[in-house]
Amino acid sequence: MTSQDLFNAHHSPIGAFATLTLGMPGAKGGFGLERGGPAEEEVFIALEEADGPDFRALPFFTPGADDSEADRYEVEGSTGTEENRRPSIRLKPFPLEAISRTFTLCRDTWQAGDLTFTLHTQVVPVPDPAEAGLDALRDALVPAIWAEITIDNRSCAKTRRAFFGFNGKDPYTFMRTWTGDGFVAAGQGGHLGLFARSEAGVSPGQGFEPAKLLAPSHPKNARFGLGATAGLIFSAAPGERRTFEVAIAFFRGGIVTSGMPASYYYSKLFANLDAVGLHALGRFAAVAAASENPAGFEALARLPEDRRFQLIHAIRSYYGSTEFLFANPGGAFWVVNEGEYRMMNTFDLTVDHLFFEMKMNPWVVRNQLDWFRFRYSYEDEVVDPSTKERHPGGLSFTHDMGIANAITVPGYSSYELFGLDGCFSHMTHEQLVNFIHCATVYLKRSGDAVWAESIAPTLAACQASLLVRDHPDPSARNGIMGFDSSRCDGGAEITTYDSLDASLGQARNNLYLAVKTWAAYLALADFWGSRREAALASEAEAQALRGAATLVASGAGRDTLPAVLFENVDSAIIPAVEGLVFPWALGLRDALGGSGPHGALIGALRRHLNAVLDPARGLCRFPDGGWKLSSTSNNSWLSKVYLCQFVARKVLGVDGGADDAAADAAHRAWLLHPENTFFAWSDQMVSGLARGSKYYPRGVTAILWLE
Questions:
Q1: Are residues 288 and 349 in the same domain?
Q2: Which residues pair with 103 in a beta bridge?
Q3: Helices 534-554 and 599-613: crossing angle, nearest 10°?
Q4: Choosing a second label site near 182 at 20 to 30 A (CA), which of 291, 524, 632, 670?
Q5: How far is it, in rounded angstroms, from Cα 120 to Cα 243?
Q6: How far is CA 7 from CA 303, 408, 679, 682, in A?
Q7: What CA–CA distance (Å, rounded) separates 664 from 649?
């Protein structure tokens, strides 16, 4: 393996908020449920040497670690203790140069010597539970992943064994081994198990350390209940090449949340961990076959290698944060947790996940929006930033729905505080715009006429709210946000770019948010036009034209647009173009054309992007060629870079050629920097180093590359 192969990646079921994170040497990965980072457990994948008793293992453990477990029990020792405690074999890592790794969307394979180990995962649509049968739901939502262990013993004259196990770190349950009807298993508590079929050459083992369970002092001691290491042992006869199938099952039963009772949806489909393991074993052949060429992702092969790697890595990280719950009351509740922060359904991530959800399971968008409108909406007032006078406001939505399964009370998020004008302030305007974009794209691409009837009054309230956030006086409106929410209570609103400077962090008069707002008016006009609501459509169209005129005027006499209008903040920002993705998704080609009613704005944004990306000017480029979201900040978010790369080429026709290839190589290098690889895919990169938004789901914006 080269340094390019030494990175952690998620291997996760869909909707289980569970993962086997694996890929870095040492105790840097492991099995996690509901975690904000890798479990930091030792994972043992080992094969007996052909010419001796020792075992060679993949490097996911700490070689030579002292076995001190027995010392906790035998303070002074006793007769025979040293002999019983001293392992008769050793577990040694394969040299890194002797290992190869093949990383694809649904397979991750390591090969070393006569050992091959593959993890299989699913990337499949989640059926709408309101329409799907139980079998389809069980197959998609089984909280399991699959492992394949091959011993190539064709050149050896002795029986050789392989071992797959781990040293569990859950402080509330202990390791165990067990057997059932047709299976053997090893794992931890009732929430995690490695399952294999009962057959010759397969047995469970448990001990203080792998060497003690692989070479116990007495044959009957191979399942020692005090041992913190457990796993499965496999044997291949001389001259035999044998492959073993393992289902890695997760299960968390009962109520798993606070604030509002909810359980995992899979607990409606499976009674317990054993039921999950058996179902997953029965699915092994189908999953393994599908993992070779996942349906719907044929276009992956056409992507340049650097982009293909980043998209695959991001999709895996997204699934590691997914959680499908069943709330009572409320029913189906799809949640995407915010990586290391574990905030639930952060709305400014939901809007960026939109394109992935529309490809895989559009009903999820509807589900999340219903939770936002029925539980996580609120009415406010708007505040004049100059006079501090308050005026009637309108509808908007919270930043999130809770954190780490602590669901917040209706109308409030876990994130937003009062009286601030920076990080942790309110994102009222942006979340309002996000709701509009998610709803209109879902409706346009799904054709869901029933939900269109249900959501129309909410979208009318969204439009009214958007108008007063421009200005309560219709004659004073310019199409962009000018008033803050009263929820700021003396502070000011921010955008999703909460940790950047004012060039992207401030909401009022912000260029990024202004273009996104312009796009929201276009979306509303299109929606009302399809329903023949002429007055509402005309109102939205007029606001879009006002916003476009304001933006074009702000760039008069210059080739870039100011990051914050009217406030002398002249930073150059790439996300000025981000909002163009939404009219593109709606098919509003006239609005994006140079000769259409908004042609002047499109031309201004194209000039702006060409200028800020010009390597000679260095405004929004790092020295390695990577994209810099703002000329005045070194904090660049890969998820947003991916989105803007798509807009640049597909919407604006800005093709950087070799410069684009250099950027892709730089962005991949950021993810594979040794300081970044522990947390799998991470978003916020400060000069190429992950400083926030680690273990993150948002990188699936790169799904747009497949368009």
A1: no
A2: 108
A3: 40
A4: 291
A5: 14
A6: 21, 35, 9, 12
A7: 14
Residues 199 and 347 in one domain: no
CATH number for the domain harbouring residue 156: 2.70.98
Which of 233, 265, 292 terminates a domain? The answer is: 292
CB 43 within 8 A of CB 22: yes
pLDDT digits (tens, 9 = 90+) for 280-307: 999 999 999 999 999 999 999 999 999 9
DSSP 8-class letter at 16? B
Give the count of domains, the chain.
2
Q: Which range marks the domain in which residue 167 is found?
A: 3-65+87-292
Are 429 and 513 in contact by the 8 Å Cβ rule? The answer is yes
24 and 173 part of one domain? yes
- Residue (of 361, 303, 362) closest to 646 by Cα position: 303
**What are 165's strand-pairing partners?**
44, 231
Inside any domain, residue 465? yes
Q: Are residues 383 and 269 in the same domain?
A: no
> Is position 688 within any domain?
no
Of 190, 181, 161, the closest CA to residue 282 belongs to: 181
Written as six digits, the tokens of 448 are 């869901």
Residue 559 lies in a domain: yes
Q: Please state which of the ranges 197-206, 212-221, 421-430, 524-533 shows the lowest mean pLDDT.
A: 212-221
* Distance, CA of 158 to CA of 276 (rounded, Å): 35
* 466 and 355 share one domain: yes
Model confidence over 603-655: pLDDT tens digits? 999 999 999 999 999 999 999 999 999 999 999 999 999 999 999 999 999 99
CA 460 to chain centre: 32
Residues 674-702: b if buried by 16+ CB within 10 A, e if exposed? eebbbbbbbbbbeebebbbbbbbbbbbbb
Tokens linked to 633: 């900040």
Q: Does 551 reside within a domain? A: yes
Residue 493 phi/psi, 5-degree rounding, is -70, 155
Please name which of 489, 476, 261 lies closest in space to residue 388, comparing C-alpha atoms: 489
* Amino acid making up residue 472: P
Instruction: Name beta bridge partners: 383.
Output: 390, 484
Distance CA 110, CA 659 (A): 33
Let me know: does 699 contact 313? Beta carbons within 8 Å.
yes
Distance CA 610, CA 623 (A): 17
